[in-house]
Amino acid sequence: MDWKSRRIQTILEAALIEDKATSDITSALTIDPSMRAAATILAKQDCVVSGLGCIPQFLTLFAKLDPKTTGRFEVISHPEIFDGVHVRKGQALAVIRHNARVILACERVILNLMQRMSGIATLTNQYVKAIEGTGAKVLDTRKTVPGLRTLDKYAVLCGGGHNHRLDLADGILIKNNHISLGGGLSAVLERALQKRKVGQVVQVEVRSPEELEAALKGGAESLLLDNMTPAQTKKAVATVRARTPKSAANIPIESSGGITLETIRKYALAGVDYISVGALTHSPAAVDLSMKITAELY
To answer: By the 8 A CB rule, do 123 and 284 touch?
Structure first.
């Protein structure tokens, strides 16, 4: 993750502005402006960490927004603590040393982002563990919080998952609405294959044996089996793998639609290559983190 990229910097700066971090009236009225403090970010549950890189960036951006900010800062974490690592309840993720008012002003945005990202990473890792040994891979979707997709998808990687399309320009996926609006599966698929750029793979979403057959006959190069049961998925995989020529037998197959932690292994054992799960980013539970702040003594 390039935390210094313009896109990420814009997201982080917007979070500080939204919270009016440079106008923390409570801290201004109660905390000595020269006080320095040490803040320890603690895991209050077992989890997979994601988002540590946001901490120094938030502090740097705060100084940009408030030129009156004085004093150096440092962010320290144990060498064994980094994005993607498992931590136990009670472990310290990082220690921030900085002006006390600045730490208080940035506390909530830091925790908000890290709690969400670590929640995504933790949930993703549960799905990944559920299909260990099957050869299938867990994918995310575009069901992300608007504006936070880059961070959401990075968190999926931290949890051991894989990224599907980053955006609408990142790959061709013919879905049911394209098919209904474009004159049917065969017509839409033919146009996509003819007009695509070199190197672009055409993936087709299918929901029935009939659509699967049409996609295979039309030359689909990747298949997404949508809302099929594990039993239906197994039959579909067998149909694809039995095709000739050999190139058809090697078509990547993905399952999607309502797949849960309880059912994902059944889909993996049905023989698919990928399983996409929208829940990874549209409904993760935030990880419980806290920030313990104490005055820094000299």
So the answer is: yes
Residues forming the active site: 108, 143, 175, 205, 226
The whole-angstrom separation of Cα 207 and Cα 149 is: 27
Distance CA 70, CA 143 (A): 40
Element (H, E) at 173: strand 172-174
Average pLDDT score over residue span 163-184: 95
Helix axes 54-65, 100-130, angle to 10 degrees: 150
Which CATH fold topology does 6-119+285-295 show? Aldehyde Oxidoreductase; domain 3 (3.90.1170)
Indicate the pTM of the whole model: 0.95
What are the start-end ranges of the E strands in 18-151?
36-43, 47-48, 74-76, 86-87, 92-99, 137-139
Tell me the CATH class for 128-282.
Answer: alpha beta
Using the predicted structure, report yes or no on whether residue 40 has a pLDDT greater than 80.
yes
When pLDDT is cut at 50, 70 and 90, the band that residue 68 belongs to is: confident
Q: For strand 172-174 and strand 202-206, is the pairing parallel, antiparallel, or unpaired?
A: parallel
